[in-house]
Every structure is written in structure tokens, then in C-alpha cells.
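Appendix B. Raw example, untouched.
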Amino acid sequence: MHYDYLIAGAGLFGAVFAHEMHKQGRKVLVVEKRDHIAGNIYTEKVMGINVHRYGAHIFHTSDEEVWNYVNQYARFNHYVNSPVAVYRDELYNLPFNMNTFSRMWNIKTPKEAKEIIAKQTGEFAGITPQNLEEQALQLAGRDVYEKLIKGYTEKQWGRDCKDLPAFIIRRLPLRFTYDNNYFNDRFQGIPIGGYTRIVEKMLDGIPVKTDTDYFSFIKENPDIAEKTVFTGMIDEYFSYQLGALQYRSVRFETEVLNTDNYQGNAVVNYTEREVPYTRIIEHKHFEFGMQEKTVISREYSLEWKVGMEPYYPVNDEQNNRLFEQYQELAKKERNVIFGGRLGSYKYYDMDKVIEAALNLCREELTRGGIIDGKGYDSRKSCKSDF
């Protein structure tokens, strides 16, 4: 069969695009190199618990249209992301708020907190930060930096904070209220039953080939589709001919524990550099589970190398310049569209992934896409078609 679109990647971006184009009568085929759909938001049942195999994913957005869109495919619970951080024998609430400051300095009022922070940040006033350490000290002061930022950030990026660019931390939200809600968005929650069900519903009725490498598949089937939507690494698509972009990767150690409650919270960060993992996820707490056992995942941040699974891009100046060069190559590719976190070399939250996929769908249909004699009302966007 000949398809209008071949979509490389069955993650959220590819699934949304495939679903919307399928609704408009286009013939689409999805290929996925993993043995499952849903990309990094994949969840699987372990001991009756929905385990986030590739790390914690909390859906949050202030875009009501995106919220309504995703609620077509799942009911969301009322989970609020409220991580805590462990530094040695101390426990702190995140994000940085009055609960954090009260624990750190044995104070009660916002006035006290502001005075301490002003005194500590004042030491670095008037300087132009040359690295992440100087930036963080100028924004939050030494106590917050040393206990809650330094070690965790160095584990995440695999580098000393003095060797990281200042722009990685453009701002540090210091909240002078007793509020542990990590996000400021209007809408937030976890899909009841896990994320995989969402993608399953989106891809219902669409042919999907898992365990299928796009490059091998297209070599054997070069004329299978009019257009390709590629959601993998843009540098890999071009065989790294300009050099490899940098990414960070993540490794998880997951185990079932014979206890009903290991840490009392879904996400606990470990901010000491000496603790090898960045955080421990206890999956049952995303859905307020009452199971007799629990499942935890220790998360380790890794330097990415070719052949490893990339998680997020390193968007420093050098890599962004290289990405721009790959973008120029991409513009010369006939009938290939690059999208998603890896194809766009951009860190996307889930709501932004959906928005980007819907915008691409609308652009394709508005310009005619692959018409095959079918009419299309360009006044009707994908986003509003539900």
C-alpha cells in the first residue's frame, strides 16, 4: 500500500499527528524502533501499579484547548506535583517556597526569608555571571545553592557548575508563600490508567510497526509514502555528517519492594553530588495507589554517546549553532518534516508537544498536504476538531 504519510516514531508527537491526519482521511503508517508505542511517556503495569518506565511525567498546561484535547483520551486525576529534596539528613519541600525557607533557616515569615536571601545574593550584586554557579548565587544565595542546586545540577549535566553556562538557569522562582505546587499552570494531573492508553486510543485504526528501524525500513521501501514525518534525532537522520549534537541520557534501576509505602511521595530528589542517582520515583503515588507492595525507580543522569537513548538536548550555544546547520540541510530534504523533541532539538513539555503536532497538522492541511482529490476546509483547525 502507498501512504500519504510515513511517521517515524510512535511517541506523543507522532501519535497526535497520525491521529489527526487519519481523521481527515489521509493514509498514514507509523514505524517505531522500540517494542512499544508512546515513546518516553510509556507506562506499564507492574504489581497493579502504572510504572513510568522512562521517568516521571506530569501533565500540566495553561492552554485550555490542549487540556480539552488530551482529556478526550483519558480522565485525569487531581495529582499535584510536589517533589521533596533530600540533602544529607535534611528534607526540603520544592519548589523553593516558605516551607523550604522555614526548614532551612528556622523562620516563619516572608519578610525574614527575603532579608536572608537579599543579604546572601547581595554579595554577588553588580557582577555579570560567567557560569551557572555565579548565576545561581546571584539569584538565590549561597544556602539554597549549596544545598539544593549545586550537587543535583552537577549530576544532571555531568559537569561542575563552574563549567556550565550561566544561561541554563535564567531565573529561579523563589516563592514567598507556603505552596508546594511545582507548577503554576491552570491544569495538572496524571491520566488514570497511565499514559500508554492515550496513545493507544490515538493510534486506533492506524497501522503501526514496532521493532522497526526507520532507516532500514525506508531503504527497503523508499516509495512507500509521499511525505515523512521524522521524530528521531535530526543529526542521526543526516548520518552525523556535521558532527553529533549533544544530549543527556538517563538510566533507571527499578525494583519491587515488599512494603506499601517506601518514601511517602512520588518524587524525591537527592541533591548531594556524592549520592549517585538524582532522584527516586515511587510510582504508586502518582495515582494514590493503595497496593500492598510498591515499585521504585532510581534515576541516574548520563552523558549521551552515539548508540544510547537520548532524553533531552544540551541547548548551549555550540550545540544550537550546529543544530542550525542541520536545519539548513533539513530544508533541502524533499517531503521530509522534522518534529518532536529530538527532530526539533528542543526540550518540550507534553502540552507543547501536542500543540506543535496540532500546528503541523493544521499547516499540512491548510497548504493542501496530500489531497488525493479530497477537499479540506482550511478554516477548521485540527485543534478545534473534537
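End of appendix B.
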